[in-house]
Amino acid sequence: MTALIVLFAAAFYLFFYFTYGKALERNVVKADGARPTPAYSCRDDCDYVPANKFVLFGHHFASIAGAGPIVGPAIAVVWGWFPALLWVWFGNLFIGSIHDYLSLMASVRYDGKSIQYVSGELMGKSSKYIFEVYIYFTMILVVAAFMGTYGALASKSPEILTASVLFMVAALVEGQLLYKTKLPFWLSSAIGVALTIGSIIVGFIWPFIACPNIQLLYMFQVIYIILAAALPVWFLLQPRDYLNSYILWGGVIIASVAAVFAFRGFSWPAYTSFAARVISGQPSPFWPTVPLVIACGALSGFHSIVGSGTTSKQLDNELSGLFVGYGAMFMEGMLSTIVITSIGAFGFTVFQGVADKIAAAGFDLAKMQTDAGYFGQVGAAVINSKDIGIGGALGIFTKSFGQMLNVIKIPVKLGTTLGGLWASAFVLTTLDTTNRLARYAFQELVEPVKKVSKGLHAVLADKWVASIFAACLGWFLIAKGGNAYTALWAGFAGANQLLASIAMLTAATWVKKVQKVGGGMLAAVLIPTFILWFTVFCALIWFLFVIVPVTATALKVILGGFVILMLVLDVWLMYNFFKSWNEGKLNKA
Amino acid sequence: MGRLLDSLKRGFRSFDKGMREDATSLIRKQLDEEESVFALVTMGVFSGLPSPPTGVLLRILPHMSREISVMNKRSAGLDDVFSQTLGTFDID
Amino acid sequence: MRIYFFLGKGGVGKTTASAAWSVGLARSGMKTLVASIDPAHNLGDALGMELGDKITHVAENLDAAEVNIDDMIRAYLDELSVKMKHTYSYMSAMNIDGYFDILKDSPGIEEYATMEAIKKFAAMTQYDAIVFDTPPTGMTIRVLAMPRVSLLWTEQLVKMRKRILATRGMIENVQGKFEAQVDGETVVLSSSEKEDPIMQELVGYREELKTLRDMFSSDQSHVSIVTMAEDLALLETKRIIESLGKFKIQVRTIYLNKFFAMANPPDEIKGKMEEQERVVTRMKAEIPGIVVKDIPLLRTSPRGVEALFAVYSKYLV
């Protein structure tokens, strides 16, 4: 069954790549191999330099892949593996990959300017500002959500905690080797990879760092992100990012091989119920809330930012855009497919491993296996229960991953540690990145304060203040929120999908007004855009009225405030869109 | 057979170049910043910023082509700061 | 070799004083050069000769020159322009001339050129003494302070440059020699201090500045102020001495020029003479270690070497 699903997914994506994808390339983007890309027309051998399309694919994929495609599906499987897969396949196909591809190509046509800039050009300056606000809120929510998922995982798994910390040390050493010595590059890299593998093995054999207190783990993460953002980049960030790519590719290859050769049927329920208790233990209707859970594997606004950041400036040829932008998103869909497969086939094995604890916590394991409806009600509670100790969404993934690797003769705990390091490496990288980005966005946002009070502005715009503020706000959200990371994850995903909405609206405007596409192909862009906007809007309203009231009091106001603000901006955005749609807004091809 | 080896060699060279760039992308961004600031500080006289006494500038100006072009490039991109920075961030 | 600076406001008599001093030194056997770096040149008038940029022989042991600072500035900028045309291939597109128009009037360019002129003359070791007729006080103080101020900036720039070179070094360790395209040409960006032209310039300039700074503060330099015995002038003189003191430059002598020394002063002048007395007393009391000399108001302004020597022997020594 596992092989079946994985191979089917591969075939699915390949088929649509060559049919739907090519149609988009021909009729919507109208990609022209002869037209010079910004990598050539603005070439400065620094940011703008043509890159080999395979290398660019690797970079782009590494940038967009992270913990997202893992955590999202791991939470969504409580609806059953089938609905989760459906969204990963069709959400990706009809919305996500189009979003990625069009953002990339629109940026290419605008000399590599960011999609935020393009939105300002096409839909008015206020759209640009809305974009910035969304980015800032997403940064704070990301910190809260990711700290929560990592905290849930690491507090229950000393192996993974040990491996993560040792990996940090490995990155520090690698930094010294690469940048401060004259050691040959590949030798330093090999040492770095060896140290990474070493940290996994040590974590597996001798998990000497254990921290069951989740609050302490949050504090550790906060201190880590502030420090990491403050230290010189070559010290920790750069070598860590570099080693992460080895972990990513290693993980993807091992996971694919294991998934294809596991030959196991799915014991996980295919479908539990429409409104299974997925987010914050509340009944969560699959529509409209699934985009709040599965973001990156199917659709993620961040990809538009990444695509229009470096990738668009390094695209060597318009015809490579499909492979890099569209293809990378499909690949991420494959990754999420593998995650769902792993849980689908081995999730119950994990449950059986802690059967006594499940019973002690008052759940009926046998009933979970036979009664899908019951599973939908209690599944998330079992996964997130501190007493049972699976470790949340990341926990169920890493443990089932360990089981899956066991099929190719890797000891279960080792496989679990590998999966755990994979996930945590990306969580931590996302955390310190967002802190730096938040600092940036915050400093932009407080610009207007200068007119009111120079002194206050000086304090707010100070880099330490901005950095600590963002980190602590995220920390506050998760620590005071009763560790309800699913709610915060949903909040983050919501903000992320709002970014996707802006990008899609921008892309749709571009397609109509600049590309002058009409008819069916325009519908192929417009319909998903509206569906996305409407779905996310409804999802956020649901979130406001169902989830916010049940979060801890301290959280209610902030989270509620965020959501209301985002909704208001969302409506304003739609207004901008319609205004520019009908006007003959200036455009530049 | 020869052609296969050739394309493998080329492939590896691209991979090698790509990995090396990967390993220095953030540092190169930092270098850009440092060079741009250096240019700004020394050439402040042209934009009304406090600057070193002109003597220093007269000495080093003939050698500053790189720093000036970095500064110009960044100034040109000031209306779209995110595009210059977001690509390096690893979110998701 | 000794270097003498005569400071003072315009019209206060410093040209006469510096010219007289140089004549005196020459007569006593020291090979002397007197140079005017004051844009309002009076040195030629005082010596009774035409003077220019080129060093003119005036009398035995005595040479003189009037430096045209504006010409110097233009010459520096021309030299810069030539250097830049070599290294900046896209000059014509960039309108470099625009840059130079700005530089011509930029803050500090006059001070820089004046300092370079001082440096040039101070390096002429064939002389035993160099006497400078300086620009008006404000400018001269800035010029004398310039080595110290420039050093502060240069040190910071050296630090910044070191950081850049260190960062380049890190990239080099991974990617090999760092090359960049600068307008169609491939340039190697060095990471070593010895190979980086900017670092070399900065370090070289720092050494020159240190030498000048030390020279100004040492026994080699004699700074004198030429002023008049009036209350306001006293306050100003004290301020000048304080400013220079901050830069560790010592003022050794005050010359009170156009001093009223009459046997039978008319009533209108009596008040002035009382002021003079007061000023001299206060000066000697409030400025420790200073030598105060007065030069009386002369019937005719001294012109020519002989007249100047008379002034020297009677009043300056």
Report on this model:
The complex is a heterotrimer of chains A (589), B (92) and C (317). Chain A is an all-alpha fold. Chain A is 77% helix and 1% strand. Chain A has a single domain, classed as Amino acid/polyamine transporter I. Chain A contains 25 helices and two strands. In chain A, α7 packs across α18 (392-406), α7 (125-156) packs antiparallel against α25 (553-582) and α19 packs across α22 (463-480). The model of chain A has no long low-confidence stretch (mean pLDDT 86). Chain B is mostly helical and 92 residues long. Helix content of chain B is 71%, strand content 0%. Chain B has four helices and no strands. Chain B has helices spanning 2-42, 54-60, 65-76, 81-85. Chain C has helices spanning 14-27, 43-47, 69-87, 91-94, 96-104, 109-122, 137-175, 197-217, 231-246, 267-286, 304-316; strands at residues 2-7, 32-36, 56-59, 62-66, 129-133, 178-182, 185-189, 221-227, 251-259, 291-296. In chain C, the strands form two sheets. An eight-stranded mixed β-sheet of chain C has the order 3-4-2-5-1-8-9-10, sandwiched between helices. Chain C has a two-stranded antiparallel ribbon with strand order 6-7. In chain C, α1 crosses α11 and α7 (137-175) runs antiparallel to α8 (197-217). The model of chain C has no long low-confidence stretch (mean pLDDT 86). The interface between A and B is large, with 61 and 35 residues.
